[in-house]
Amino acid sequence: MEAFGLLVQGFGILLTGKTLVLMMVGLVLGIFVGVLPGLGGPNGVAILLPLTFTMDPTSAIVMLSCIYWGALFGGAITSILFNIPGEAWSVATTFDGYPMAQQGRAAEALTAAFTSSFIGSLVAVLLITFLAPLISSFALKFGPPEFFAVYLLTFCSFVGLGREAKHKTVISMSLGLLLAGIGMDTVSGNLRMTFGSAELLRGINFLVAVIGLFGISEILLTMEERLALRGHAAGISLRVVLAVWKDLPKYWVTLLRSSFIGCWLGITPGGAIAASFMGYNLAKRFAKDPESFGKGRIEGVFAPETAAHASGTSALLPMLALGIPGSGTAAILLGGLMVWGLNPGPLLFVEHKDFVWGLIASMYLGNVVGLVLVLTTVPIFASILRVPFAAVAPMIVVSCAIGAYAIQNAMFDIWLMLGFGVVGYVFKKIGIPLAPFTLALVLGNRAEDAFRLSMIGSGGNLKVFWSNGLVGSITTLAILLLFWPLIDRLLQRAGLTRQPKTAAG
Amino acid sequence: MAAVLCSAPAWAGWEPSKPVEIVVAAGAGGASDQMARMMQAAIQKNNLMKQPMVVSLKGGASGAEALMYMKTSEGDANKVLIAYSLIYMLPLSAKIPFNWRELTPVSVIALDQFVLWDNAGGPKTVKEFIAAAKAASSPFKMGGTGSKREDHVLTVFMEQKTGAKFSYLPYKSGGEAATQLVGNHTESNVNNPSENLEVWRAGQVRPLCVFDKERISYTTKVTEAQSWHDIPTCKEEGLDIQYLMLRAMFLPGKVTAEQQAFYVDLFHKVTQTTEYKDYMEKQALKPIFLTGKDMVQFLEEDDALNKSLMTEAGFVAK
Description:
The structure holds 2 protein chains of 2 kinds. In chain A, 72% of the residues lie in helices and 1% in strands. Chain A has helices at residues 2-14, 17-35, 40-48, 57-82, 91-102, 106-139, 144-161, 166-180, 206-225, 238-247, 252-267, 271-285, 299-314, 316-322, 328-339, 348-351, 353-382, 389-408, 411-430, 435-458, 469-482, 484-493, and strands spanning 183-184, 191-192. A two-stranded antiparallel sheet of chain A has the order 1-2. Chain B is α/β, with parallel strands linked by helices. In chain B, helix 6 links the parallel strand 6 and strand 7 (166-171). In chain B, helix 2 packs antiparallel against helix 10 (274-282). Chain B is globular and about 65 Å long. Chains A and B meet through strand 1, helix 15 and helix 20 of A and helix 2, strand 2, helix 3, strand 7 and helix 7 of B.
């Protein structure tokens, strides 16, 4: 077991007082940036990157990756407490996490989120440890048709498995796709829908839209309905944590499914955002009572969080092995590696063993330390709920505005955020789901590029999406999922069992 | 000695009073970003400036975001752009209302090479490659960064010179183009050395020729068998195409001469650091340092060349 020996060596590098202190500092900073909407992992890591220039590469990457884990943990906090996703991949966590908080089960929801984050990351790290060489060759199989098939699968699973009326999902998704087209089109090199405005050149940033759609619209709704954010009176004790943990084994299927989806999308790299939505939708699809989702079901927190974190962690693998960052934060870490003279690529695992295994060991340790750290600070975060709404609301609006501004240092984005706030409010009033809109906004461009590159490559022949086993099976699965409600009904009529096979993806 | 004498008054005259933003017209991890971070580290480690330097990524709209940002920052000497050939090409292809003459030139700090690469399992020489491309039933796929830019222009010129047909696939970054070549999703690319370095060292791609008049000067072995110098020029191989890309620093328009002098001096010092020298060799960049009149003359000639290439390739928007 070569991997095991190297891992032990990696732990040896880590277990020094200095590294452990850096780890704690990184985690606390990470949780902090994760909590602020919009600031998030990528910006946090980018801001703190120069601090590490004078450190040795291993200490530096340990600290930076701990900021990353911290941000992953922290993103869940505002989603659950305020319905404002601190990170894009936390959007799906709001669906059930926020209702739980409203019912006074905030501590339970937070514990569930942190625990499932931990499980997701752990599965991904185990995968990295033992499958690194195999996985990097798998990722190389992905050309434009394969990428498009994965995006198609994400879109189709939304329409086919979503709870909302299908036409509303499609309307929402189409609007998202339309807005995603604003800005420079990479394939033709032309500008689209910018109307001569310099501000629209860079397109609509996904996070700005998310902060407005979810955060600002929620404040508007709460103001209208005079609903106070209800505080959780009782102290959050070890008992709550243990109670949640005791129930964990009941949800092993959900946890395992989400981990699998997350790892797969992290490596391919479909990204944590797609993973969290897919994890949520599949959990709902395979539940005995899908209607209870969205009303504060703990599984609705487990599923997206596990998937997002499995994906966020496994996204580091293609970055290290191939130099393709699977997420924004991974891209910044990539820049950092280069500053320290480490070029990610197939040879990194051979030439800089110490560094790679030190990093992998830090993933294990950072996750354990992070879990303990966030759980012990749950009471502090949950106590925010006890502050009156009138005092919290302005603070949330200000922090949303700071977040929206900080992404690109543009005042225009604050106006955009407010605009999306109104859009989100109207959508919620007329019952159009927001999630398909945001999903289309973030994946629309990539899906379009992948489709057009496939078409250039094949000379316009659609058969390219069935040209090999890999892309063929993903495309077929996507189409099956799109028509799933229809197929489901036909199967029932034919008298076949209603129980679908699990883990078809 | 002369440089020291000239720059002394500049030091006394002006110095940034707040953190300096180095504006990158590309995404995270790309060649410009790497270079900006190298300079950030070189300046910080060698104490070349009292204020810190922060890297600001403005890669939106294929880098047009950075150009517009610099254009609208007139008179703000705390922003410096790390530019490349997009300053000539984007205004032509996408009609961005931008002209580099509105910015203040500081210095040209490097020239980047272009190399024709194919998969390690593909043809071994330029001649075999061209022959295979002509014989192929569907056109060879050429990966590159963006549309109607350097990589695309080079592809069009290869078609014109050889008569072979290519389908050009515009990816978001050179890194992506590199892995797509390794995965055999494309037959070739014209990446900069830095973009393909790691996959070359791993023996997954093969350099066929370099698009320059002379070979790359670095003779240290990069792979087990080859150095950058061992790659033949395209002309040697019978493919007479040359193209180099500038890497240059610009300030926004309407800054004072003193402010300009401060940065000329700063980047001159950067080019003297070991960080810069190591970086140049590692990424196989061509060292150059032009400033003042020499730089403007270089830019004018380079602009004219790029304009004619873009016009010939049919990439200029009407």
